[in-house]
Write a structure and sequence with these properties.
The structure holds 2 protein chains of 2 kinds.
Chain A: E1 2-6, E2 9-11, E3 19-20, E4 25-26, E5 33-35, H1 37-54, E6 57-64, H2 69-78, E7 82-87, H3 93-106, E8 111-115, H4 126-134, E9 138-148, E10 151-158, E11 161-168, E12 171-175, H5 187-193, E13 198-201, E14 210-216, E15 225-227, H6 232-241
Parallel strand pairs in A: 1-6, 1-8, 6-7, 7-13, 8-12, 9-12
Antiparallel strand pairs in A: 2-5, 3-4, 9-10, 10-11
Helix pairs in contact in A: 2-5, 3-4
Chain B: E1 2-8, H1 15-25, E2 30-36, H2 41-45, E3 52-58, H3 66-80, E4 82-88, H4 91-104, E5 107-112, E6 120-125, E7 130-136, E8 141-145, E9 160-163, E10 174-179, E11 192-196, H5 207-216, E12 219-222, H6 224-228, E13 249-253, H7 259-265, E14 270-275, E15 288-291, H8 294-310
Parallel strand pairs in B: 1-2, 1-4, 2-3, 3-9, 4-8, 5-8, 11-12, 11-13, 13-14, 14-15
Antiparallel strand pairs in B: 6-7
The chains are: A alpha/beta, B alpha/beta.
Bound molecules: flavin-adenine dinucleotide.
Flavin-adenine dinucleotide binds next to helix 6, helix 7, strand 14 and helix 8 of chain B.
Chain lengths: 246, 312
């Protein structure tokens, strides 16, 4: 079985979020990049577990510039066999998805895994877009994934609960919590990652459908009003009269 | 020109569905709803009150197969000449809207929190730490609206309901079982949320949290470590790597307020923090703070709310 894991880079979760160029660009000053946590903790680790159980290969794909090579090497250190980087600026979800779908189709992957969303743009778009371009089923927000021959069994989140489903490969799956546990790369993995293949491929021509024009930061909260812990009637009164939420 | 709104009516009409119709109405064109699911005609006709002029219902699709739903919505968009397609940004929209975007080559904005201003739409980015203004380049547009971003407005009257054949094709996903706990309020849609963290010391102490939630009619949530150690189910985990929510009221007990936790909850309109540590960072993000022991404050707050409910 050939598994393709899509990884995106995202700012470390403690990064200060600020913007430059008249609030039109994310300020990268001092920002550390990591593998998007959902891609790393759930999609990649589950792919490795499936390989360990059933054999096959796990490849990483990223749409990005040389700036992304560090996070690709990190993913290789955790255990993927090889990686491909589509050499382009990941301008919008549609652009990224069309690049990945074209590559996945041309190389006959059985299973394409993404994280449930990125922690910077939170769009939850890429997995669904890839699946439509490949004309295969898409299982979103999966918390369990087992493969038996050419059949996948999954548990996915639905409105108000969970569902268990079965589907024939090839499929695209977006991975959420419950799929796997984070793995910390060891020294051997880090050494091996240096020499694993990272193929750089030219992008195909795709137009952009959306663009971020500007950004704003939320207004600072006014000071918190402290309430006497003995006097919860006062809190209820404030929530009713002042905040009008109950 | 019209605006098409997809509504899932498997479990009746959710509040978020009426929000999506209200949002569509504000775009200024005729609003037509397309639905799959089990709701009866009378229930569907009530969508007219929120601004729909007509509801199309495709009864041959009973599950949430994203490929089938995409085909049905694309067929409806073509037959109604829709310039914009609106979803509520729920789990169905997360699997269907991106597919539809590719099928129609229509730009998609996920999680809109306001109606369009000029040619851009405001969304949350960086897990709620900032906002972005997104522009769609294509003629046809798709917008999914984050639940609780606007109030439903019912000032119309019931509308007609028509059967619709959306050429759904066959389902490729075989449904084995659904597990829907009864009586629980789904977290992403909840207007009131009671949440607790490691400060509660163990799963056996969650009775206080559930009791308060029950009195309020609130959903329950938790911090990440609490879900990781298995005190609470994963779907209750809120924050940057969990569910992002924006209820009217978020009550947090025994949660320190780490930056990753705040990312998922700082869209809440009002935040109440209960913590024994005056230095807990959560107080900086709170509207009301209670410096005290959750084991005493939660039951006391529950009693105060019961008293308030009894006299109102
Ligand atoms: C990449 C990454 C992603 C993450 N994503 C998330 C996320 O999505 N969501 C999330 O929640 N966390 C996330 N975290 C973890 C986050 O950094 C914090 O560790 C976590 O939120 C802390 O949980 P807590 O507040 O329950 O526990 P603690 O930090 O241990 O805080 C417990 C609090 O309870 C208070 N307390 C103790 N006893 C009482 C009492 N009797 N009454 C009242 N208060 C009491 C203490 O003063 C303290 O403030 C993430 C971390 C990383 C690195």
């Amino acid at each position: 079985m050939k598994i393709l894991v899509c990884i995106s880079k995202s700012p470390d979760t403690t990064s200060k979020i600020a913007f430059t160029d008249g609030n039109s660009k994310f300020d990268e000053n001092g920002v550390q990049y990591i593998v998007n946590p959902y891609d790393e903790w759930y999609a990649l680790v589950r792919a490795l577990e499936l390989k360990e159980a059933n054999g096959g290969t796990v490849s990483i794909i990223n749409v990005g510039t040389t700036q992304d090579d560090a996070i690709i090497r990190k993913a290789l250190a955790i255990g993927a066999d090889d990686a491909v980087r589509i050499d382009a600026n990941p301008t919008d979800a549609y652009y990224v998805s069309m690049q990945i779908a074209a590559y996945a189709k041309a190389n006959s992957y059985d299973l394409v895994l993404t994280g449930k969303e990125t922690i910077n743009y939170n769009g939850s778009q890429v997995g669904g877009m890839i699946s439509e371009a490949m004309d295969v089923p898409f299982l979103s927000l999966a918390s369990k994934l087992e493969i038996n021959g050419t059949t996948a069994s999954l548990e996915t989140e639905i409105v108000g609960g969970l569902q268990l489903v079965e589907v024939e490969l090839p499929i695209v799956v977006s991975c959420a919590k419950g799929m796997a546990e984070q793995r910390i790369p060891n020294m051997r993995g880090i050494m091996a990652a240096r020499t694993k293949p990272l193929n750089v491929v030219a992008p195909i021509e795709v137009e952009m459908l959306t663009s971020y024009e500007s950004y704003t930061l939320p207004e600072a909260k006014s000071a918190c009003r402290m309430i006497d812990p003995e006097n919860m009637d006062e809190l209820v009164e404030l929530l009713h009269q002042e905040a009008k939420v109950i | 020109m019209s605006t098409l709104v997809y509504i899932n009516s498997r479990d009746g009409i959710a509040k978020s569905a009426t929000e999506a119709i209200t949002y569509a109405k504000k775009l200024g064109e005729e609003v037509i709803a397309i639905t799959t699911g089990g709701a009866d005609d009378a229930t569907l006709a009530s969508l007219g009150e929120f601004g729909a002029s007509k509801v199309l219902v495709e009864r041959s699709v009973s599950n949430d197969d994203a490929q089938q739903l995409t085909k049905v919505i694309a067929t409806a968009a073509a037959s109604t000449g829709a310039s914009t397609i609106v979803f509520s940004h729920d789990l169905i929209a997360k699997s269907v809207a991106p597919r539809l975007s590719v099928r129609l080559k229509a730009g998609l904005i996920s999680g809109a929190i306001e109606i369009p201003q000029g040619d851009t739409v405001k969304v949350n980015v960086f897990s709620g730490k900032a906002f972005g203004a997104v522009k769609i380049a294509s003629e046809q547009k798709i917008i999914s609206v984050l639940p609780n971003s606007l109030q439903p407005e019912a000032n119309g009257s019931v509308c007609t309901v028509e059967e619709f054949n959306g050429n759904a094709g066959e389902a490729k996903i075989k449904l084995i079982e659904t597990k829907i706990p009864d009586g629980e309020i789904p977290l992403p849609e909840a207007e009131l949320v009671v949440s607790a963290g490691r400060g509660l010391k163990g799963p056996e102490n969650w009775g206080m949290v559930e009791g308060l939630a029950k009195t309020l009619g609130a959903a329950t949530a938790c911090s990440r470590p609490v879900a990781d150690i298995g005190w609470r189910p994963h779907h209750e985990h809120v924050g940057q790597t969990g569910v992002a929510i924006r209820p009217n009221l978020y009550i947090a007990a025994g949660i320190s307020g780490a930056i990753q936790h705040l990312a998922g909850v700082n869209g809440s309109k009002v935040i109440v923090v209960i913590n024994t540590d005056s230095e807990a960072p959560f107080f900086k993000a709170a509207d009301y703070g209670v410096l005290g022991d959750a084991f005493e404050v939660l039951p006391r707050l529950n009693e105060a709310i019961k008293k308030f409910k009894a006299s109102n």
